[in-house]
Design a protein that fits this description.
heterodimer; A: about 425 residues; alpha/beta; OB fold (Dihydrolipoamide Acetyltransferase, E2P); Rossmann fold; Ubiquitin-like (UB roll); 4 domains; 6-stranded mixed beta sheet; 11 helices; B: about 325 residues; mainly alpha; about 60% helix
């Protein structure tokens, strides 16, 4: 099975895992239409008392904003059709969504909201129409006055192994990206733009682009924002802070391309590019409207999903396992991976044997052998204070090498979540 | 959403490099076996008896304790067998069965399980057991006394004992090559330097132990011995002699490198190894015991938590 990487027989050093480049011979992205309703996840708990603005039976257009309770946040319809259901949808780590199901109609009608303002790109227009475009731009970061941004970092590299979605976008949609960069510069006043690409691809960009092109090392996890900050920009992000705090805004190439395309055409992009990694390990590209059930995407490639298999949104190191084939494609679903029941690896409750492999592999130089003892005991505050919990970049290498197969990354993410939750409830209790 | 198909959900990462505790134990066991078998060749079936009893009783103590304490049964991970083997390899071939049983009880139950089992022992279990036997039954653990009824075609005096009692004159006749290929008296599995070195290098290449600890340990032994030897060449043996006798190579590769009781960072590993190696020579040269290397290992274990405070600054650490 090519999907499992195992250690070499003689292996003194750390595992060297390299990002996957776009294969030299790759078919154009397979265009996928949903076979049934699409599901949009609106990050709003379903409220029993309030009457939603979106009603079952309502007709919606492609690109139309749907805001359940009239608050600033919204989702963008990716098809033209009829709203068929509104249902609560529990997400991970306590997030509560409302799932809006829309059955596509045969004829596609485009919403013309953006058309009226697209000639004059402004942050207001972007926030008004483009927060949920493919690539997940995270536009709210741009409007934070307390945290002025001075550098836009366009990520033409992917964040996980096996995935090449963003690399493909960087190569295939140069025009949209250039447009997007110009629009973003115009609406925010950011002057410095850096485009990240694979190291050997830097040469291909000489002169004719809007930003400085920088090459990222092939070794995982060099492409993660915190690692790029330390490795390429020479600025370590202080533990517990973000790249934005230092004035750097990392945005996926696809998000920039979406913004560029939206303002130049007046139509909101709704199709997400996905690297599909079936059980045979041969990756393919797919393009599907946001909200398409992942089952529809996998079916197109003839990937049979059996009992006990794992469907992962994202790559093997940082992805999220999905519990249902009906789970919708999200604006940031860069990859879909199917792991055979036999190939997937289970964690164990074995104790740490203090071998130190995690310490040696950690890119954040954390004392994981000691940290994990605190995390197992639920002593999150101590873990944060004495063992650098907040330095973690969440690359998952510690779990990957753990001899005892301790779910270290899960412990770390849970601890961060619990600390944030405790902090958010403290003022109420005080 | 109706569940048509049952998918398994777990947390990232979804890959693993395939390392297992059982596999590590197996590799250590394999790496130590040639030196142990050499002991059987050298000392005969009584050595095999000691080794077999040591391994089997260690496994049984582990099984018994986990049953009584209602802990998950952990003998399958092989660590108890490894401790049993390493313990047995340090013993004289004539040690009676009851002493072996006592030793494995101390190693498994007292030095390991009481502290929480695998990964939680502050001291090397096999070293603790040997240390206690040395204090409890001095004569039984003394190689000259214990092996008095064995006939060898080389000097039948324990080299470290000889040099301690009579100075370097007593070891003039010994060739370093003889010591290296196991023509000497000592613990069952610790006399053949060549095989111990081969096993240790194998473990380093496989990534199971780290080179820093054994190298620093051997350097600590060599440098300290050299200083003593320079100070009084008639009384104190030269460094090469210290490296090839007693438990030096065994301790460097198989005792000092035990996971739970040794540090994991680069600088701490070097200090740990060097300190334990230096103390080993101090005990040999000016201590009570001709071979007190296990005590040096235990002192190293004792300072390990302090050493682990020496660590690189984490990414973006705010001081």
């Amino acid at each position: 099975m090519t999907m499992m990487r195992s250690k070499a027989f003689f292996g003194m050093g750390q595992p060297r895992m390299e990002y996957t480049p776009v294969p030299p011979r790759i078919d154009r992205p397979e265009s996928i239409r949903p076979t049934g309703p699409v599901t949009l996840l609106h990050l709003r708990p379903t409220e029993a008392s309030a009457i939603p603005n979106v009603k079952i039976g309502e007709t919606v257009k492609t690109g139309q904003k749907l805001s359940l309770y009239g608050t600033g946040d919204y989702v963008t319809s990716s098809v033209s059709g009829t709203v068929t259901a509104l249902a609560p949808f529990p997400g991970s780590f306590g997030r509560n969504y409302t799932a809006i199901s829309i059955a596509p109609a045969p004829a596609e009608v485009h919403d013309d909201g953006l058309l009226a303002v697209h000639q004059d790109p402004s942050l207001t227009a972007a926030l008004d129409f483009l927060t949920a475009v493919p690539g997940m731009p995270g536009l709210k970061r741009l409007s934070d006055e307390d945290r002025p941004l001075k550098t836009l970092v366009v990520c033409g590299v992917d964040q996980d192994l096996l995935v090449f979605t963003q690399q493909y976008v960087l190569g295939a949609r140069g025009h949209d990206i250039q447009n997007g960069i110009r629009m973003l510069q115009k609406m925010t006043g950011i002057e410095e733009v850096v485009i990240l690409t694979r190291r050997e691809a830097v040469q291909g960009y000489g002169g004719h682009c809007a930003g400085r092109v920088m090459g990222v090392d092939h070794l995982y996890p060099s492409a993660m924002p915190q690692m790029v900050m330390a490795g390429l920009f020479g600025r370590e992000v202080p533990a517990g802070r973000t790249c934005e705090d230092l004035g750097y805004c990392f945005m996926s190439a696809e998000a920039v391309a979406s913004i560029g395309a939206a303002f130049s055409t007046g139509r909101i992009p709704v199709n997400k590019l996905i690297t599909v990694i079936p059980k045979d390990g041969v990756p393919r590209l797919a393009e599907a409207p946001i909200g398409t059930p992942v089952g529809d995407v996998l079916k197109r490639f003839g990937t049979a999903v059996g009992e006990g298999d794992r469907i992962v949104a994202g790559g093997p190191m940082r992805g999220v396992a999905l519990f249902s084939l009906d789970y919708p494609v999200q604006p940031d679903t860069d990859a879909l991976m199917v792991l055979d029941a036999a190939a997937a690896d289970n964690s164990s409750d074995y104790p740490c044997i203090n071998c130190g492999d995690c310490v040696r592999v950690c890119p954040a130089r954390m004392q994981i052998n000691l940290l994990v003892r605190y995390l197992e005991a639920g002593k999150y505050a101590d873990a944060e204070e004495s063992y650098d919990l907040n330095s973690c970049v969440e690359c998952g290498l510690c779990s990957y090498v753990c001899v005892s197969k301790i779910p270290i990354l899960q412990y770390i993410v849970l601890a961060k979540h619990e600390l944030a939750r405790m902090r958010s409830t403290e003022p109420i209790n005080a | 959403m109706p569940d048509k198909q049952k998918l398994v959900v777990s947390y990232a990462p979804f890959w693993h490099n395939g390392n297992r505790v059982t596999d590590r134990s197996l590799q250590i066991f394999l790496a130590a076996t040639p030196a142990a078998l050499f002991g059987v060749y050298r000392f005969g079936l009584s050595a095999l008896g000691v080794l077999a009893l040591s391994v089997s009783s260690a496994v049984l103590w582990e099984l018994a304790f986990t049953r009584v304490a209602k802990r998950p049964v952990s003998v399958g991970d092989g660590t108890a067998a490894v401790i049993g083997l390493l313990f047995g390899m340090m013993l004289p071939a004539s040690l009676p069965w009851w002493a072996v049983l006592t030793g494995t009880f101390i190693a498994i139950v007292v030095a390991r399980q009481i502290y929480g089992g695998i990964g939680a022992n502050p001291f090397n279990p096999a070293a603790v057991a040997v240390a206690i036997l040395m204090l409890a039954w001095k004569q039984r653990m003394d190689f000259d006394a214990a092996l008095v009824n064995f006939a060898f075609d080389f000097s039948s005096a324990f080299p470290l004992g000889a040099v301690k009692a009579f100075g370097t004159d007593a070891i003039k006749e010994l060739s370093l090559l003889d010591l290296f290929i196991g023509r000497q008296v000592g613990g069952i599995g610790s006399i053949c330097g060549a095989l111990l070195l081969a096993g240790g290098i194998y473990l380093i290449l496989r990534g199971i132990i780290r080179w820093e600890i054994p190298v620093a340990f051997l350097a600590g032994v060599a440098v300290t011995a050299a200083v003593f030897h320079a100070a009084d060449p008639l009384k104190f043996a030269p460094p090469a002699f210290h490296l090839l006798t007693g438990l030096t190579l065994f301790g460097a590769f198989f005792l000092a490198t035990e996971d739970a009781s040794s540090p994991v960072n680069f600088v701490p590993m070097l200090i740990f190894g060097a300190a334990a190696g230096a103390i080993a020579v101090f005990i040999r040269n000016i201590g009570v015991f001709a071979e007190g290397l296990v005590f040096a290992i235990l002192v190293g274990n004792l300072i390990q938590p302090l050493l682990d405070k020496i660590r690189p600054n984490a990414l973006g650490k705010v001081n």
